[in-house]
Write a structure and sequence with these properties.
- This protein is an all-beta fold.
- It folds into four domains: 47 residues, no CATH class; 47 residues, no CATH class; 46 residues, no CATH class; 134 residues, Jelly Rolls.
- It is built from no helices and 29 strands.
- The N and C termini lie far apart (97 Å).
């Protein structure tokens, strides 16, 4: 046997005579045979291993030019490229045909999204999508394994970075305010709006909306009844009222919790008082910090009274300071300027 040459302007080799039969070119090798053949019953062009058409196929091409490979594909060269699609307005996909589950990597051309998902149909049960702006969206849990798993948000540039929790009624965020070098936890999806917790680079923690009141009595309150009548003390000047929970003389708890209360008062003109009682008047119970007879007055005419307590309050409970002084000559006392009342949510 030798070589056959086909010359001419349009040389052509035809194998078969248009009848219902397979047609084959066989490469009779020393160790392995290969074939290129027409599987006429399937209308497929086959390239395969062996001498019998259909045994150990490597590549098949059907009448729609769909190509199927039966083994690995290796692309070599300096810049190997596999292009799927022809720039037309159509979806393209790689489908992994599994035993129990199929998966796909696909271009959803109408949305301009790259999808990775479950199944063989593009867009059904997506797991990950990447849009034209490289925004990545996951549709399931993300688990990071390994000895030192690390999630890095940001690229060391001068920019804010955040995690947004997209809730039904309220959104929350955890973010880096890069201009202030603060870690911020707050309400909403925009960083810096309604900040609840702010941690600076030195570790200082600020809670700008945590319930806290600092109130003072900046002017002497004169001629308060001193015949044992319960007097609700007024602290008219608000130094601070985070969250707006104080309307003198009453604090109203915004949430259930433990609140630290401190108070300092200074009644005078009580030289003949028989007793003085001062307490935190809360909705659920009273918290006494002074109950005394005549023997502990300062210079015989006034008291300097200070106290503190950690009290439990339910939401909408109230707290104020009550003073009762009995046995005062003339039945009135004065409260000296400079008194204070503070309350803060602790836990």
């Amino acid at each position: 046997m030798g070589t056959i040459e086909i010359d001419g302007s349009t040389p052509k080799l035809t194998i078969g005579n248009a009848t219902a039969e397979d047609a084959t070119i066989l490469f009779d090798g020393n160790a392995q045979d290969f074939y290129i053949a027409l599987d006429d019953s399937a209308d497929d062009l086959l390239i395969g291993l062996g001498s019998t058409v259909g045994t150990t196929p490597a590549i098949s091409i059907d009448e729609n030019l769909a190509i199927k490979t039966y083994g690995d594909i290796t692309m070599t060269g300096t810049t190997p490229t596999l292009t799927i699609g022809d720039a037309g307005a159509e979806d393209t996909a790689i489908v992994f045909d599994g035993n129990a589950q199929d998966f796909y990597i696909a271009l959803d051309d109408s949305a301009d999204d790259l999808l990775i998902g479950l199944g063989s149909t593009i867009g059904t049960t997506p797991a990950i999508s990447i849009d034209e702006n490289l925004a990545v969206k996951t549709y399931g849990d993300v688990t990071m394994t390994g000895t030192t798993p690390t999630l890095t948000i940001g690229d060391a540039g001068t920019e804010d970075a955040k995690i947004v929790f997209d809730g039904n009624a309220q959104d929350f965020h955890i973010g880096l305010d890069d201009s202030a070098d603060d870690l911020v936890i707050g309400l909403g999806s925009a960083l810096g709006t309604t900040s609840h917790i702010v941690i600076d680079e030195a570790g200082h923690i600020n809670m700008p909306l945590q319930s806290l009141v600092i109130a003072r009595n900046e002017a002497t309150i004169s001629n308060v009844t001193g015949d044992g009548t319960a007097y609700t003390h007024v602290f008219a000047t608000e130094v601070a009222d985070q969250n707006g929970d104080f309307a003198s003389p009453t604090f109203t708890a915004p949430v259930a919790g433990k609140y630290l209360v401190t108070v300092g008062i200074h009644p005078e003109d009580i030289s003949s008082a028989t007793y003085v009682v001062a307490y935190i008047n809360a909705s659920n119970r009273n918290w006494y910090f002074l109950s005394s007879g005549d023997g502990v007055k300062n210079n015989g005419n006034d008291f300097r009274i200070a106290g503190a307590a950690l009290i439990d309050m339910d939401a909408s409970d109230t707290a104020s300071i009550t003073v009762q002084i009995s046995g005062v000559g003339g039945d009135t006392v004065d409260f000296v300027a400079g008194e204070w009342f503070t309350i803060q949510l602790m836990a």
